[in-house]
Amino acid sequence: MTDHSYRLDDYDYDLPADLIAQFPAPQRDQSRLLVLATQNPSPAHRRFADLIDYLRAGDLLVLNTTKVFPARLLGSKQTGGKVELFLLALPRPAVASDADPTWHQATATALIKSSKRPKKGSLLSFGPRFRARIDDLHPDGKAEVTLQYRPEQEQSLEQVLELHGQMPLPPYISRPDGSLGEDRDRYQTRYARQTGSVAAPTAGLHFSDELLAAIRSKGVELATIVLHVGYGTFAPVRSEDIRDHAIHREYVEIPPAAAEAIHRTKQAGGRVWAVGTTTVRTLEFAADEQGLIRAGRGECDLFIYPGYRFRVVDNLITNFHLPKSSLLFLVAALAGRNRIMATYREAVMAGYRFFSYGDAMAIVTR
Description:
Elements: E1 32-37, E2 44-47, E3 60-64, E4 66-68, E5 72-77, E6 82-87, E7 92-94, E8 104-114, E9 123-127, E10 130-137, E11 142-149, H1 157-164, H2 181-186, E12 194-197, H3 209-217, E13 221-227, E14 250-254, H4 256-267, E15 272-275, H5 277-285, E16 296-300, E17 315-319, H6 326-335, H7 337-349, E18 360-364
Parallel strand pairs: 1-18, 3-13, 3-15, 4-12, 15-17
Antiparallel strand pairs: 1-2, 5-6, 5-9, 6-8, 7-8, 8-11, 9-10, 10-11, 13-14, 14-16, 17-18
Helix pairs in contact: 6-7
């Protein structure tokens, strides 16, 4: 099997259930860090705060400043039965009803979970001032809904969601009664700014304010982009040939300052470090054949798998990804499939914690 294998089964590995992290490390920057440098035969086993030892003055660290919103709503149907509404994207403001203009409105696409699917036109209640009307039901389980809320003291919809919603933790993190108070903080990066994600860019969860300050003090420049993580990031790959997989689309934004910083770093011979696969996809999507970044906004549908030629990203900070996932294909494209799969097996043997709240990996190619 070569590093360019396109067989789905070649990206599988055995993971004991007890290595799936259910809670974050007590301190953000004290999670474990496996450093895979392509020039070294064996990985190094460090703490995340030790990342600073691998950064050099003149390097550029690119962060995704998307912010997760509380997309999981727990409420009741008109019949009194329990219902869960999972918003698939940040709701879009809509015109308030003429019948009662005190109720503000927003539309959204959502998944509905209940013992019996509610009917079109029915109302779901999440509190005396917050409800949802089912406008349309799709065969794939999705629904079009109108959120209706009567704000107190000029509350925004985002504030209403903060009050009533749960953090949308991935399905492999067990919270039977909903997310905990600590998840509000820990399932969010310290530099989250633009609201719009239903999943965190989890590589960034390891950065503390103190570590970011130390990185700046070392002469490393920081730049920011935005990719709003959608529910499609959890979509399983079902095609036996991974090239046949239809990758999801996600909103991205590359500010002019980020494009200029990347160009400046490349010109000076510095290295571009991407924090997370979301940042990799954004930068590579925005680059031309020569590696020049175009500032702007768009819908990213770039699918990276082994054989891809990276134009911008030199090094990557990431978490450990699910077997047979598009994100595992991406890291294999950067480090080589054989090397990645062997490293994952070593990480399992060494007891690393996997997935969103788990430990981190740094892939250093230069």
